[in-house]
Structures are given as structure tokens and as C-alpha cells.
Amino acid sequence: MKLFAFIAAAFASPALKSSGCADGVHPHESDCTKYFQCSHGNRWPDQSCPEGLLFNPELLVCDWPENVDCDKECADGVHAHESKCDAYYQCSHGHRWPDQPCPEGLLFNANLLVCDWPENVDCGSRN
């Protein structure tokens, strides 16, 4: 019996988090492209909406960005990363998409909004 308990514990889902959350589907706390599900007080791993969609907390489905009010303030367009000189991010409909790295050996030129040769880039306080 002890062997069965050990094997059962070894194969139990390590990603399940006991958090006391209400059963159902919920928007992610900080990422409008994600959501999570709770069952019996346990939070299951975060899920991502298909590319180009955001999670609509009113309908509890992935939806077009224009139908979702993501609380983050982010001007549409391409932006230099706040602390990484070799990365940038893009915003659309107020949503910040995941950071993007420049190809190896290049840095993000905040003036031209492209990855560029290091001699053409002033990183300022960005590393």
C-alpha cells in the first residue's frame, strides 16, 4: 500500500496549485492574453489565448482585442524595452505583447524603432 501511495504521489500533477480560488474560468492577474481555471479550490496552470486574441473577462472567452478592455496603458506601436537594450516590445489596442529580443549582436535603436548595429545605438540607462 505504501508503494502505491508513493507512485500515486510521484505522478500527481505538480502544476496544480491550491489557492482557494472560486470554481470557473478567470482572467490572469497581469497578462490579458492569459486566463486560468479553478476547480475544487485549486488553480490549474495558466492558459494562453491563440495569437492575436485577448481574454475577455466579461464573456470568459478569448476575443478580438477591440472587444477587450485591458487595464494596461500601452500606446500602440513598437517601443524600446525599459531596461534591456537588446529587446523591444509592441503594443496594440492598449495591450503589451511579450518582449522580443533583437538578433544576436544587435541592439534596439529607439530612434529608428529597429534592431541596429551597436555603434548606431545609444542605450542610455538600458543595459
From TrEMBL:
SMART domains: ChtBD2
Organism superkingdom: Eukaryota
Gene Ontology cellular-component annotations: extracellular region
Pfam family, one: CBM_14
One function term, GO molecular function aspect: endochitinase activity
E.C. code: 3.2.1.14
Signal peptide (residue range): 1-17
Record's keyword annotation contains Aminoacyl-tRNA synthetase: no
Protein's GO biological process: chitin catabolic process
Catalytic activity, as annotated: Random endo-hydrolysis of N-acetyl-beta-D-glucosaminide (1->4)-beta-linkages in chitin and chitodextrins
Protein name per its UniProtKB record: chitinase
Lineage: Eukaryota, Metazoa, Chordata, Tunicata, Appendicularia
